[in-house]
Amino acid sequence: MTEAASEPVFWTDDSAFCGPLAHGEDVAAHFHDFGQLRYAASGALVTVTKAGTWAAPANRITWVPPFHVHRSRSYGETDVRLLGVPAELAERLPAEPSVFVASPLMREAYLALLCENEPADSPRARLLLEVVLAELVRARREPLRLPEPSDARLKAVTDLLHADPASPATLAELGHRTGSSERTLSRLFGSELSMSFHQWRTLLRVQRALLELGEGTSVTDTAIRLGWANPSSFIEAFTDLVGQTPGRYRAAARAAGTSVAGYP
């Protein structure tokens, strides 16, 4: 998934939103003068900015600061909950888009704020928002930002990989398909994205694995569907980047999705 070519739209509506997105549904590039928290109570939401791509299943929450252009795509039947954060409060959160691990307390406060029709200016709503922000300030930030290129030659290659992360094609083969040399592409991966072709593709696959596992796909099936030679190599790569095994991540993501099933 890469940055849309159309001009981003300025959105002024800062009201909270709860609603479904079908699998693969896109939200076009846009920005606003308030911050926004983006949470998928089920399914998963991928957010793309110029700074990179983030994947957020039901145990993660995405933060987009004011004026950052972003677009999204849903994975699975996704129940999206969007919350605007006034600019004066947004200063308490990072100045760049981020994904946080959602604590149970933060998740419950967030869902209560959005799903119980609480007036936005009520004392209870202000208290719930304060709980959400306080939990986010201390939450662990997800390190899996996938950098996206601006160079057209490199973007042609990453577009192919976004479309088929499991592709076993070498950099030379991808260069042949897009009209660039392996040497040029290798240099661009290092100079523009600060990582090798192999590192970038592994990170892309691990991001997609977050989505697969969040939907309940088994570790073995996820490894096969995303191009790893065997489950062991997948487990090793996933654990190195995420900090826990895919089995533990899958269990936590499924638990998070189950815990919000009672909300409308």
From TrEMBL:
Pfam families, per the entry: AraC_binding (PF02311), HTH_18 (PF12833)
Segment forming the signal sequence: none
Annotated keywords: DNA-binding, Transcription, Transcription regulation
SUPFAM superfamilies the record matches: Homeodomain-like (SSF46689), RmlC-like cupins (SSF51182)
Domain HTH araC/xylS-type: 155-252
PROSITE patterns named in the record: HTH_ARAC_FAMILY_2
Name by which UniProt lists this protein: AraC family transcriptional regulator
